[in-house]
Fold these 4 entries.
Entry 1:
Amino acid sequence: MDLRINNGWICRIDNDRVIPAFADLLIRNGKIEQIIPKNFDDYSFSKSVVSDGIYDAGGRVITVPNVNFHDHIYSRLAKGLPVSGSMENFHDILKNLWWKLDLALDLEIVEASAKMAAIESIRNGVLYIFDHHASPASTKNSLKTIANVLREYNLRGTICFETSDRNGEVFKTDALAENVEFAKHSCDENIKAMLGIHASFTVENKTLETIKDLNKKLQTGIHIHLCEDSADNTISLDKFGDNALARLVKFNLINDKSILAHGIFLNESDYDIIRSFKSSLAFNPHSNLNNAVGLPEYSALPSGLSILCGTDGMHANVVSSFKQIFLQMRHQKSSFENTFSRMEKIYFDQITFVKKYFPDYPGLNEGDRADMIIWDYVPPTPINSGNFFGHYIYGISERQVCSAISGGDFLLKNYNLARNEEHVWKEVAIQGKRLLKEYKKLI
């Protein structure tokens, strides 16, 4: 179906620059066929003639879709759960909440979690998700379950299962098998695979050796928590004689397709090593604040280090995470000039990385795949390449996504989902009640 979007500020990407232009946009066969420039000064804000196949953006900003580079879809139903045991430090939080929660999951709960995540993601303009999954007692077909939901909602995703030795040999072997089975048989142009690892301190050397061989065969990257807390380094050193990053390097596990999530307890030498392997750090600022693990020392980040944004499963609003990084940098006394420069680089780092898995990720140029989001934001002052990020940080990020389009099809149109969501919330409530029951058995 052809679609024409009228009267939008189309924020094209070209050579690491955002180029806003007021224009109409013609979509045909899932691609942007033509961009038709208009004079914004002539636009009267009166409603244009609307008919089937025509959408009036009403002077709003249109950007490339958002990407969540570190999500935990399995955590979506984990609201209001009781906790038994200490929550005084991060290791206790893992042991007394998350490592009990993930053992309570089955495929029905995973599916409901994925549907909830899909709806929340679409409403936040997140059309691409890099998910790090865990359901150790129900591993087989868990990744396929998530992938099927993403396909159902017309989302694109890169999925893996976190491999860990913390639950014993059988669950570790199941996790490895699930990663391999999914990577070999369940991927297509919209769903990709990575090799999942929980964190260095819960993975034995023998397991890392196996993952090294698998990574070489599958030609993908790893997705791992790295130094989210100081325990990752201290326990790794105590058990294995190397810190967390050194172990990954020792087993040749990081490459330019790898996501290293968090990276709070790294030093400048570590950053240089990650940069030399062209791997990317995915910062999750809201989660780090919630877990009281600290913040990155942003001034220590080398300029060439690739940085991504994630939510760590806390929510789906990854642009809020982006802004939180900006605010944390300012809190650490980074100048406005340096902070805006870093945020611009992160914006383009993310586009560079997502293209390693989805080469057709769009830049809103003619011929590109028609993926885009329309923000409920009409620029109050002229918007251009020079001030786009001022609008993005202080304006766009504070507004809702009103419409989202994937492959030329509306997933969200004027705040209304293309798919009926009412039955989903009933299903979520049913599965959430089951999760609570199973979880209580483990606390």
Entry 2:
Amino acid sequence: MGYAQYKELGNSGVSWLQQKPSHWRIKRLKFSTDLINDKVSVEDSPSPYIGLEHIESWTGRKINGEIRNSEGLASSFTTGDVLFGKLRPYLAKVHLAQQDGLISSEALVVRSKDELHANFLKYYMLSRDFINVVDSSTYGSKMPRASWDFIGNLPVLLPEVEEQKTIARFLDFKTAQIDALITKQHTLLDKLAEMRTALISHAVTKGLDPSVPMRESGVTWLGDIPAHWNAKRLKFVGKTRYGLGEPPQKLDGGLPFIRATDVYRGEIDGAKVQTVDPDCVPWSRNPTLKAKDILVVRSGAYTGDSAIVPTQWEGSIAGYDMVYTAEGASPEYIAFNLLSKHVLNGQIYLAKNRAAQPHLNAEELGDVVVALPPPDEQVEIVAYIEKSMKKLVIQFELVNGVVERLHEYRSSLITNAVTGKIDVRNVLLGQLSEA
């Protein structure tokens, strides 16, 4: 659906805003808001506390989740205040408070004055142009932060308050529609992931020939396996060692340092990988990764997740993970086993949840049982899974592309509405639901 344009435009005098509707005023943010700097001891206050991790990037939504242990001073806010994450502002952590509470001191608490509607301010501070300008002002290379001295001097566009409310209502309605579409796409991604796991699980426990005789494996979660296969513990098929506990000094252009957060569902996310100074690496710990080593996450929310090391990451440094080297079986075949239901849900799940915090050690990993066919059959199964996975990867990419376009549309719509690039005053929300 296309939207009307404002008929009368004038120069805003601000390069990144360009033109604005002629009847919109422009003012420095600090003159239309108050910065609330009330610090409260977290331990002594009964008010609920949230951290920046509980604000979703680019949406303004509050995320329900575990509250990290916090102490010291936090910023007090009340209903209707806008919370803006000044740490790494490119993450666009902006939230309109729906209740009183406390937030990390890494957030600014901004209270709008009568001429500025709070919900409009939230969307304005979420707009792509505003975030980009704030991000360009940050200081500190490791923990970039923005300051109120800079943000408060930025311009804010001021339609009449009733028009601000109309724009905010339009964005509330439209972003809810977009978010519902994004949720549907994520549901589809979850289904594709389930299909992927089911494909792997069946191939590494039942094989490719449905006519072969089966026998009991003797392992509850493994069930029946082909009669000519063997059930073996990983410690009898390969060796496990630990990566580094502490990361060496970071260095641009240094050696890749692969952490648990870089491992997800059998893949290493190259976009996240940091680089470290080789002179600071404790080489006696044998941290160097070889192609076909298998990284296994040993603690945290993704304990038990794993990924085989591809050739491109050979020579990287292993972070706080376990490194499994298959010696008596195909490394690719073992890697697929570690992604299967009978290992993740049946064995690793039990091992990692024995303690208060999810954790897996080398002994527990070594006790994991896998079903081993003869070597030539391992190769056939790996080839079959890889071929089948290519079709799923195409579907994953298509759905992820839709999600990316929806996020881009959402961001563009907010930016265009709060900077006067589109006129939504005469848009009826009933018409929107039919669009």
Entry 3:
Amino acid sequence: MEEILQQVRDFADKAHGGQMRKYTPERYIVHPVRVMNICREYTSDVTILAAALLHDVIEDTPVKKEEIREFLLTLLPPEQADRTTHLVVELSDVYVKKDYPQWNRRKRKEKETARLEKTSSDSQTVKYADIIDNSAEIINHDTDFAPLFLHECRAILKRLNKGNPELYKRAVETVDSCIAKLKEKGLPKT
């Protein structure tokens, strides 16, 4: 399994190309790797772990789901390749600014949350890990945007409750802890 995950990691890294994390001078791949490692604390399912590594590829790169599936078929049986691809699609934002420029951020996020609510328990599990990693990073690097972002995360978590219950609890605690840190700093609360 480790060799498969390394190859998936390399594919995701190549797909993200020169992208860097928004707040740190790190290659983008550090985020999907952290998301996968958080998921790994709760599951050893290779399809979930691979989806965690690939969760931003469709959304943030030119790579399409068909390319992901074709790549995964070189590593996994068709059923697992299809399942992983499906999870990545479920985790990819649909209501993005470039496709819905007439909608404000709030409306796009509301629509996205409603869509995510209908996704599988496994994709929701990956989303919890994504929220944990992004919340921890934003609280340290962008206290201006953090109140809005954490409010959005809280709203998502209120509606996404089908994933791993232990990881769900951790995600809620992480968001609540980050909100408490903002309050300690005297910053606007969510």
Entry 4:
Amino acid sequence: MEALRGAFLHSSVVFLRMALIDTGREAQLARIISDAERQGLGILLYTPGPVGVPQLGPIHLLLERPGEGWEIGLDLGDADLALLVAYTLKQNRNQELVLIARLDGDTERAQALAYLKSVAELARIPEAKLLTETPNDEPPELAPSITVFVLRLPANVSDLRERATRAASPCLFALDSGRESALA
């Protein structure tokens, strides 16, 4: 990563792959994620889904409650790269994009939907479906073709693997480099 930073044209994103089963490489993967973050690089961590997942389902982007609450600001915090990748997948695959606010309970549902609506409008994402989800909700009727998560540090690889297993679809975890802006 350090050698690539010195190149004239260099990548600002590191692409990684994580298996759904424990391969004994968690410490190595966590170290690479930490090193990339320290170098100011974004990260896209891909996890394949279970066999037989439909490829024609919608693209799900799960957004958790921002630190300042369900209020839209000048940027999306650490969700810019995740939103940009999800939108690019939507465009390239001509599939529906579902923005999902992950809630702890039902009390913030209206605020979260207003937040998602603002995100879709400000990021100029046409025809995005907006949903909220609590831990007790049933899985969606149509399995997603891919689920995009915001990767937050410190990254616990076993927790990421558990989230990918619960999603029951291929997953992409995205960590901002700090230079992305989905609202620009």
